UniProtKB/TrEMBL annotation:
UniProt keyword list: ATP-binding, Helicase, Hydrolase, Isomerase, Nucleotide-binding
GO molecular function: 3'-5' DNA helicase activity; ATP binding; ATP hydrolysis activity; DNA binding
Catalytic activity: ATP + H2O = ADP + phosphate + H(+); Couples ATP hydrolysis with the unwinding of duplex DNA by translocating in the 3'-5' direction
Protein name: DNA 3'-5' helicase
Enzyme class: isomerase
Domain UvrD-like helicase ATP-binding: 5-296
PROSITE patterns: UVRD_HELICASE_ATP_BIND
Chain residues that bind ATP: A26, G27, P28, G29, A30, G31, K32, T33
Highest taxon of the lineage: Bacteria
SUPFAM superfamilies reported in the protein's UniProt record: P-loop containing nucleoside triphosphate hydrolases
One term under GO cellular component: cytosol
Length: 594
């Protein structure tokens, strides 16, 4: 971005000409989301293009962010649709037009009659082994069989010389495949799901791209339906997404993209910071915001050190003297949170806080307060029985979401228990049961959620097997629905010895609104009065000492996002370190807690 053509604004800026493409780059806490919400209101008030079938699409990255924007809009206007990019494309491209995509034999690539939303891909070795052709391929290669689940779990679509290919995301899985396996194998594997009408989140982008590429008239339909498309967190766009947005923009929709290149942290999902930095549409206006309205001066100084030389030099909006930043050197993970809370208490910081750490593994450790991590439990359950694993995951996820009072999202999750084929037969581990009415499905989902909430305490103490059996006898039976019996086999043996509580504690919730221990990815976009950033690996401290915010890998940016969530107080927990490192901490004005 050439600084000369960039207009500097604050989050109070009101755009007079709402019919102009724009890009806003701003650092953390600048008020990007705050501005976006006001801009939507501005467009609703002043645009002449909007009516009931010509709307504003506001797209953001996660469902939690969608809910946040909906809440903050404080209006119920049919002319605004807030969604994630995946829901937007599923609703407007995949669902209505997927039937157009055919294979070389002229057959529909997806069984669209059975299509019912998009799910997370849970890799299935069973699917491969039950398919004659794929199983034969695997049997030929011993090495492949042992690492199959990891390889399948790592699959994603990526752009390669103008073509989209399905391949593992990480180099180590690519190496594990070597020349053993080609993309055709993966596509055939995916096709097994598509034949059942199951598509995964990542497939939504792939199908949308292909539909819009082949049938350019559909770009016009979408552009006519959405004369305004605004996208928050656009630094995490990927090349497929960027191309789709450009296509729609070229048909006349006003496109506004907002983000911060220094907060791009989804490289592992193909995010391309460059796509955001270089994003340019006809007559696009470029803006920057340089204030930080969230954090104290002390925190902003640390953030500026991490950001280095950049077009954005953040100034502090808040005037008061802030608290010092602390570091806690720990030998035992159990003591960390207590020390953090003691300091908070001393400073009379009694509002919200969050413990943030890079990996899911560290989150589990912090949650269980032992040095053991049981995140393999769910993998085990899935290995023993994929259908029952899915049933349990949907039910407990819905329960945990409902605990955050996000009832609509919880019901949506619970509805996944009642997936049916085109004749209304319940899929998964139900025994010959059918539900044909959508309304009945919803009322069953609500009733099941109520059952889970009412019996939460007793359920937590049960073994997973007892819970499964009681669920059948106490809940499903009253509606004449039956689960398959778990009277023997691998699932029964495992579920007998496992407590529900363990399963729930190790649930990897996709998104949480109120969790006090989160990964950095799940803390993105949020803010808290106090933040404890938990560093598990001592080597990571270098991302703080010698940050490289523009590095190809996300590490420095991850910690930048983590530190920038703090409003009043930031504390960093690190494993015991040597004197030299302590001195470097002091140089950065980070005080030792003891
Ligand atoms: N003009 C304003 N008036 C009052 N409060 C504001 C204004 N702009 C921003 N804020 C507040 O500042 C905080 C940060 O704003 P916001 O979350 O929109 O920043 P952001 O740029 O989206 O941050 P990030 O990229 O770190 O997620 C919020 O609490 C928001 O309500």
């Amino acid at each position: 971005m050439n600084r000369e053509n960039v207009i500097e604004i604050t989050s109070d800026y009101v755009m007079e000409d709402v019919d102009c493409n724009f890009k806003i780059i701003a650092g953390p806490g600048a008020g990007k989301t705050y501005w976006l919400i006001n801009h939507i209101k501005n467009v609703l008030k002043n645009s002449k293009k909007l009516h009931i079938v010509a709307k504003i699409a506001c797209i953001t990255y996660t469902n939690v962010a969608v809910e946040e924007i909906q809440d903050r809009l404080e209006i119920n206007d049919d002319r605004v649709e807030v969604s994630t990019i995946h829901s937007f494309l599923y609703k407007n491209v995949v669902k209505p037009y997927i039937y157009l995509l055919k294979d070389d034999n002229g057959e529909c690539i997806v069984n669209y009659q059975e299509l019912g939303g998009h799910d997370e891909h849970v890799p299935s070795k069973g699917k491969v082994m039950l398919n004659k052709e794929l199983c034969a391929e695997v049997k030929k290669r011993k090495r492949l069989e042992t690492s199959l689940i990891q390889i399948l779990g790592d699959l994603d679509w990526s752009f390669e010389s103008g073509k989209i290919v399905l391949e593992p995301r990480h180099d180590w899985t690519k190496r594990a495949c070597g020349k053993l396996i080609d993309t055709e194998f993966f596509t055939k594997y995916k096709r097994l799901f598509w034949d059942e009408g199951i598509i995964h989140h990542e497939d939504v982008l792939y199908f949308s791209y292909n539909i819009l590429k082949k049938y350019s008239i559909i770009r016009n339909f979408i552009s006519a339906k959405y004369p305004y498309i605004f996208i928050d967190e656009f630094q995490d766009t990927n090349p497929i997404q960027t191309q789709i947005i450009k296509w729609i923009g070229e048909q006349g929709s006003i496109i506004g993209v907002i983000g911060d290149p220094a907060q791009s942290i989804y490289k592992f999902q193909g995010a391309s910071r460059d796509d955001f930095i270089k994003f340019n549409l006809h007559n696009q206006k470029d803006y920057i915001m340089t204030q930080n309205r969230r954090s104290t001066k002390e925190i902003i100084n640390l953030l500026s050190h991490m950001r280095g030389e950049d077009i954005i030099k953040q100034s502090c909006y808040r005037k008061e003297q802030g608290k010092p930043i602390y570091y806690i050197e720990y030998e035992n993970i159990k003591e960390v949170e207590n020390i953090f809370h003691e300091i908070r208490e001393e400073f009379c910081l009694n509002k919200d806080y969050c413990v943030i750490t890079p990996s899911n593994k560290a989150v589990s450790k912090l949650k269980s307060k032992t040095n053991q991590c049981n995140s393999v439990i769910w993998d085990e359950i899935y290995k023993k029985d994929l259908d029952r694993g899915r049933l349990l995951e949907h039910i407990f996820s819905a329960q945990e979401i409902a605990k955050e009072l996000r009832y609509e999202v919880a019901i949506k999750e619970m509805l996944k228990v009642f997936k049916t084929d085109k004749d209304g037969n319940l899929k998964g581990c139900f025994r010959n049961c059918a539900i044909t009415s959508k309304l009945l499905k919803r009322s069953l989902a609500v009733a099941l959620l109520e059952y889970m909430i009412n019996n939460m305490e007793t359920n937590m103490e049960k073994s997973v097997l007892n819970f499964y059996n009681d669920l059948n006898d106490e809940f499903f039976n009253q509606f004449d629905l039956k689960l398959t019996k778990a009277s023997r086999g691998a699932f029964k043996d495992f579920a007998e010895t496992l407590q529900v509580k363990e399963l729930v504690d190790n649930l990897k919730l996709k998104e949480e609104k109120k969790a006090t221990i989160r990964t950095i990815h799940k803390a993105k976009g949020a803010e808290f009065q106090s933040v404890l950033v938990f560093i598990e690996n001592i080597n990571d401290i270098e991302y703080l000492f010698d940050p490289d915010i523009n590095h190809e890998e996300d590490n420095s940016r991850l910690y930048y996002v983590a530190f920038s969530r703090a409003e009043d107080f930031l504390c960093i927990a690190v494993p015991k370190m040597n004197k030299k490192k302590s001195e470097r901490m002091n140089k950065l004005n980070i005080k030792c807690s003891n």
